[in-house]
Write a structure and sequence with these properties.
This protein is of the alpha+beta class and about 500 residues long. It has three domains: about 160 residues, Alpha-Beta Plaits (2-Layer Sandwich); about 280 residues, Bira Bifunctional Protein, Domain 2 (BirA Bifunctional Protein, domain 2); about 35 residues, no CATH class. Helix content is about 35%, strand content about 25%. It contains 16 helices and 22 strands. The strands form five sheets. Strands 7, 10, 15, 16, 17, 18, 19, 20 and 22 form a nine-stranded mixed β-sheet that branches. A six-stranded antiparallel β-sheet has the order 2-3-1-4-6-5. Strand 2 and strand 3 form a beta hairpin. Helix 6 packs across helix 12 and helix 6 crosses helix 15. The radius of gyration is 30 Å and the shape is elongated. The model has no long low-confidence stretch (mean pLDDT about 95). The chain binds serine and zinc ion. The site of serine has 7 residues, from strand 22.
Length: about 500
């Protein structure tokens, strides 16, 4: 990497008479920084020394990064000149800064990043920055900008690449009871109604009973036998949680954002009320005045809030592994074109078990969970389904597509054959559940500790709409044709409501 930085230091007093001293001082500094770096060729040169102003240039090649020492240079100066001459530093500005380096691959398309201009030439990229103040330098933006440039180029190459998918296990083929789309049929029968807004559903008694049975099965057949305890979390996730998990940078276009009222003051809302009463429409312009900018979003997945609940805690060894689940927070994701039936929705009901323990505990737990899941999908649902390693959800949800699961950490997807979509080989199977071990990722960002052990964590998403539609797509809507195992949980559907 090549760096070329021009800095302007304004002192509180006259320094131009101290040229020799400053020169000596700068060369001393550069010796100090460079002594451990043999490959470096770097120079510090005074460009201007006038009254209280010092402008100098640092050029460097190699690992020495001028932006990470400029604040130290300031501190050295302040100390030295402060004690000797009682001269302080009023302001430092990086007037210009160029960072040039070679990319691994040539860009496919030009792009930009905030705070800088980028020049591309073949594999070479130059980041041009101007007028950076001390705050900017302190905040460590520059290293992150360099990383962001590299990441954006990498992403260009991964965009077109097929998704990572590796089969682990598959069930026998099962003869489906029918080949219809369960959502369409349930809507026809008035068991289900499309919700008032995009991707939402209203479950009438029959469909609600099926969802309820799914929840019971998950709890009774999987979570309780394994010793999971229930927690109840908030649906509203403040941004600082998503900043930590990476969701905020990963899926900003998929959240349902939450605004608080700017005030409860009745007087401030008076005009809004008047306009509503008079116009019988929503006075959006007036509303805007009374809302705060969102600082939170509706639950996207339940685990981030669960990790937050352990933030900074030290867990007693006897409580490990922690096995908990939430079934109350409803997840909302703003889908674009992909909405379909109750299987691809903006709002869904899910049970999310989260586990925190040692690596050994979690690897063992995964085997036990897989056993219980297999029991449900084979013996209770009698499903045709399979399991595959996929790109871990935490990579996807952090906006990254190019990672592969390992056998230890990573995500397993559970997929069901959906007869209405076509034949087994060519049609897309439905991902109706997942299970992940994430290593220490969230343990670290939320500083969760144990007395002695190193902790790992993981989670599993049990989507009730997905379970329901996978089951119904293969087994149909006639309870008489449902497998006996399922009939034990739901043998008869509620009567529902007859419409005229
Ligand atoms: N947190 C996981 C996911 O979002 C499991 O629900 O897929
Ligand atoms: Zn999760």
């Amino acid at each position: 990497m090549e760096f070329d930085l021009k800095a302007r230091f304004s002192f509180s007093g006259e320094i131009s008479s101290k040229k020799d001293e400053i020169n000596k001082f700068l060369s001393h500094i550069s010796d100090q920084f460079l002594k451990n770096d043999e490959n470096n060729s770097s120079t510090i040169e005074i460009l201007k020394l006038e009254k209280s102003l010092l402008i100098f240039n640092i050029k460097s090649e190699g690992v020495f990064r001028p932006h990470s020492v400029i604040l130290q240079i300031k501190n050295y100066f302040s100390k030295e000149f402060g004690s000797k001459y009682h001269i302080g530093i009023r302001e430092i500005i990086v007037e210009s800064y160029q960072i040039s380096f070679e990319l691994e691959k040539e860009i496919l398309k030009k792009f930009s990043i905030p705070f800088a201009d980028l020049d591309f030439q073949g594999k070479q990229v130059k980041i041009n920055l101007k007028d950076l103040d001390e705050e900017f330098l302190k905040r460590n933006y520059i290293d992150r900008m360099i990383n962001r440039v590299k990441e954006k180029v990498e992403d260009q190459y991964y965009e077109g690449k097929g998704e990572f998918w590796k089969l682990i296990w598959k069930s026998d083929e099962k003869t489906p009871v029918w080949e219809k789309d369960p959502t369409v049929e349930m809507v026809r029968l008035e068991w289900l109604k499309q919700g008032p807004t995009k991707g939402k559903w209203f479950f009438r008694p029959q469909a609600a009973a099926i969802m309820e049975a799914m929840e019971k099965i998950a709890i009774k057949e999987i979570l309780q036998p394994l010793g999971f305890q229930e927690v109840i979390e908030s649906h509203i996730v403040p941004f600082d949680i998503w900043l930590k998990t990476g969701h905020l940078e990963g899926m900003p276009g998929e959240f349902y954002y939450v605004s608080e009222p700017a005030t409860r003051d009745v007087e401030k809302w008076e005009r809004f009320v008047d306009l509503t009463k008079i116009t019988k429409t929503v006075p959006f312009d007036e509303l805007k005045e009374n809302l705060s900018i969102p600082s939170a979003g509706i639950c996207y997945a339940q685990c981030p809030m669960i990790y937050w609940s352990f933030k900074g805690k030290t867990i007693a060894e006897e409580s490990l592994p922690i096995l908990i689940y939430d079934k109350t927070a409803i997840s909302n994701r703003y889908e674009s074109g992909g909405r379909h039936g109750i299987e691809r929705v903006d709002e869904f009901h899910r049970i999310e078990p989260v586990y925190i323990g040692t690596k050994e505990q979690l690897l063992k737990l995964r085997e036990k969970m897989l056993e219980r899941y297999k029991h449900v999908f084979n013996n209770i649902f009698d499903l045709e389904w399979r399991m595959a390693w996929v790109t871990p959800w935490y990579m996807q949800q952090a906006g990254k597509t190019h990672d592969e699961s390992t056998q230890e950490t990573g995500t397993i997807d559970f997929e069901a054959y959906m007869p209405y979509r076509g034949n087994r080989a060519d049609s897309e199977w439905l991902e109706f559940q997942n299970l992940s071990i994430l290593g220490e990722k969230y343990i670290k960002v939320f500083t969760i500790k144990a007395q002695k052990s190193d902790l790992w964590s993981g989670c599993s998403g049990i989507g009730l709409e997905r379970w329901t539609t996978a089951f119904l797509a293969q087994k149909g809507l006639d309870p008489d044709k449902w497998p006996d195992g399922f009939k034990k949980y739901l043998g008869n559907l509620p009567e529902g409501i007859r419409f005229l």
